[in-house]
């Protein structure tokens, strides 16, 4: 089954304690992306990756890092989490082959609370 | 970047067609219109997309006006499980970025 898997689904952590949210896709997609969703603001893009070792900032990258060492994995790293990073996070992937206009696949979300 | 405008919320009776409008008056000629929905706080789910012609799949129909400035998503026989937030999105030309608005909260009533 084609899917994007995020872990953990729920996480409560304390300010300043480094954490990683993992994202893995089994569709051999080149493009992967992280979004955060906050009430009244919709989904906003944090970082994206066009392929292995190619990453770039989205609209709200401050306080986050990513890496893309393998095509299937795109972890989101919070080096020093702060309460304003409390949010619902989604990972997404899609293919980028020439002429593709297909859809993005989203993970089930990670609800992060920073206290 | 093209932006979209959608009503904040809509109600629809179960079994009736749900027609969700979207305005994208600044869309460029090579930008596609995509529709996604989000049930509760799950990950957004793809519904349908189109460029200029009307499209239909097993979930919905997409009607795009001739000038491409607006579109309508049609759920032909809405069920309670179609209660969700529906996002109309224009794909940024030459990239793979989605710009999400706040969508339309559709409530299907029994």
Written description of the protein model:
The complex is a heterodimer of chains A (115) and B (110). Chain A is mainly β and 115 residues long. Chain A has strands spanning 4-7, 10-13, 19-25, 31-38, 42-51, 54-57, 65-66, 76-78, 87-94, 105-106, 110-114. The mean pLDDT of chain A is 93. By secondary structure, chain B is mainly beta. In chain B, the strands form two sheets. In chain B, strands 1-9-8-3-4 form a five-stranded mixed β-sheet, with no helix packed on it. Chain B starts with 8 loop residues before the first strand and ends with a strand. The interface between A and B is medium-sized, with 28 and 20 residues.
Features:
heterodimer; A: 115 residues; mainly beta; 4-stranded antiparallel sheet; B: 110 residues; 5-stranded mixed sheet; 0% helix; globular
Layout of SSEs?
The complex is a heterodimer of chains A (115) and B (110).
Chain A: E1 4-7, E2 10-13, E3 19-25, E4 31-38, E5 42-51, E6 54-57, E7 65-66, E8 76-78, E9 87-94, E10 105-106, E11 110-114
Parallel strand pairs in A: 2-11
Antiparallel strand pairs in A: 1-3, 3-8, 4-5, 4-9, 5-6, 7-8, 9-10, 9-11
Chain B: E1 9-13, E2 18-23, E3 33-38, E4 45-50, E5 55-56, E6 61-64, E7 70-75, E8 84-90, E9 104-109
Parallel strand pairs in B: 1-9
Antiparallel strand pairs in B: 2-7, 3-4, 3-8, 5-6, 6-7, 8-9
From the alpha carbons, calculate the radius of gyration of chain B and give it in angstroms. Answer: 13 Å
Measured between the Cα atoms of the first and last residue of chain A, the distance is 36 Å
Task: Trace the largest sheet of chain B across and list its strands.
Answer: 1-9-8-3-4
Would you identify the regions of chain A where 5 or more consecutive residues have pLDDT less than 50?
Answer: none
* Helical/strand content category of chain B: mainly beta
Tell me, what's the shape of chain B?
globular
What is the overall number of helices of chain B?
A: 0
| Secondary-structure element series of chain B | EEEEEEEEE
Mean pLDDT of chain B: 92
C-alpha termini separation of chain B: 39 Å
**Oligomer designation:** heterodimer
Q: DSSP helix count of chain A?
A: 0
The helix/strand class of chain A is mainly beta
How many extended strands of chain A? 11
* E-strand count of chain B: 9
């Amino acid at each position: 089954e084609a899917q994007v898997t995020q872990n953990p689904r729920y996480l409560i952590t304390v300010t300043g304690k480094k954490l990683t949210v993992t994202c893995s896709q089994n569709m051999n997609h080149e493009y992967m992306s992280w979004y955060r969703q906050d009430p009244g603001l919709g989904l906003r893009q944090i970082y994206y990756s066009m392929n292995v070792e190619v990453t770039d900032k989205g609209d709200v990258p401050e306080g986050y890092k990513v890496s893309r060492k393998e095509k299937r994995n795109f972890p989101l790293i919070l080096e020093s989490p702060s309460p304003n990073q409390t949010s619902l996070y989604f990972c997404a992937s899609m293919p980028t082959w020439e002429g593709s206009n297909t859809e993005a696949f989203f993970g089930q979300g990670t609800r992060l609370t920073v206290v | 970047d093209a932006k979209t405008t959608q009503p904040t919320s809509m109600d629809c009776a179960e079994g009736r067609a749900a027609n969700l409008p979207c305005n994208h008056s600044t869309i460029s000629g090579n930008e596609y219109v995509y529709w996604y929905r989000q049930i509760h706080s799950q990950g957004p789910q793809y519904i349908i997309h189109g460029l200029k012609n009307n499209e239909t799949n097993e979930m919905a129909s997409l009607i795009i006006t001739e000038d491409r400035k607006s579109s309508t998503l049609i759920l032909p026989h809405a069920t309670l499980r179609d209660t969700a937030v529906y996002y109309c999105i224009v794909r940024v030309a030459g990239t793979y970025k989605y710009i999400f608005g706040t969508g339309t909260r559709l409530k299907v009533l029994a």
